[in-house]
Amino acid sequence: CCARILTSWFATEERGTYWGMWNIAHNLGGFMAPLLAGSAASSLGWKWGMWAPGMIGMVVGCILVLGVKDKPETAGFDPVEDPTAGGGSDGATSETEAAEEEEELPAEAPQKESIRQILFDNVLKNPFIWGMALTYFFVYVIRQGVTSWFVFYMLQEKGALDAGVAAQRVSGLELGGLVGSLLAGRLSDMYIARSDGGGIVGKRVQVVIAYTIGVACMLLAFRGVPAQWVSAQWLCIFMIGFFLYGPQMLIGLCGAELVGPASVGASEGFLGWIAYLGAANAGVPLSIIVRDYGWNAYFTTLLC
Which residues lie within the region annotated Disordered (predicted)? Predict the structure, then answer.
């Protein structure tokens, strides 16, 4: 729903910036949730640790339902982009071609696409979507592998005295992700604005590639930092989050721009499903690797 609204309200050359602003909810939520729930539970009882966040979510949700329109036309504005223009992909999609053919025949009313057409014809038969999905899978393996295992690694290998100290050192991950997400979207928009308007998704993918190289470099740097260099450890973790959350944000945006407006929800749902399969593979599989082969194998797996 949010992805479809963003693609409808913001033009291609500015969409990355606003998509990044939306995406930092992951980081802000991860940072604020323990503080909010913990404060409510300690002040009002443990039940309020669950009720307080839920009530805030309901209030904000009601405000959005009443105030947000799904597209500019619903609010009485002109569309931000020509609806018959390509969705920004490097190859034409069947959905765009169908829209162009229907425009040539104004006598016929536009027919609403079926769920089968939206999911199978526009998403699952699109090879570019599958490429994004494969990349998303491995990005989430790394993301979940880092968030789940870095505390244990700090305790065993980097001299952290207890879990609290280790968690403080890992806190830079979400902060770095917030900055990295915002900057990745802005960089991709600037790159697109400087181009001739062609290969929109390709421009964003180039930013993704640069960020993934940064992730690999910072994982190696973090592995090599001595246990006594606490500040350097925190900085490396900050930079891992910076480079990791950029691709997480941009791949979702690329998936939305590879299909037409009617298929954005299906595309994002499919990519999200694949992403969480990747997150699941950072659990038991990585635990077996760490247990049987050690931390060198763990970092080798993330780098591969």
Answer: 75-110
Enclosing H/E stretch for 54: helix 48-67
User: Angle of helix 163-170 relative to helix 172-194, nearest 10 degrees?
Assistant: 10
pLDDT tens digit sequence for 230-261: 889 899 999 999 999 999 989 988 888 888 77
Find the angle CA(187)-CA(193)-CA(6) to the nearest 5 degrees.
70
Is 247 within 8 Å of 209 (Cβ atoms)? no
Which residue carries 């990044």 as its tokens? Answer: 20
In contact, 126 and 93? CB cutoff 8 Å: yes
pLDDT score for 112: 67
- pLDDT digits 0-9 by tens, 122-157: 788 889 999 999 999 999 999 999 988 888 888 888
- DSSP readout, 175-237? HHHHHHHHHHHHHHHHHHHHS-S--HHHHHHHHHHHHHHHHHHHHHHHHHS-TT-HHHHHHHH
Class of CATH domain 2-82+114-303: mainly alpha
- For tokens 């393996």, name the residue: 141
Domains of the chain by residue range: 2-82+114-303
Give the per-residue pLDDT at 271: 92
Helices (H) and strands (E) in the chain, counts: 14, 0
Supply the angle between the helices 163-170 and 230-257 in degrees, to the nearest 10: 50
Q: How far is 204 from 251, CA to CA, in rounded Å?
A: 8
Residues contacting residue 80 through CB under 8 Å, at least 6 positions apart: 8, 9, 10, 11, 72
Residues in the chain: 304
d(CA 33, CA 35) in angstroms, rounded, equals 5
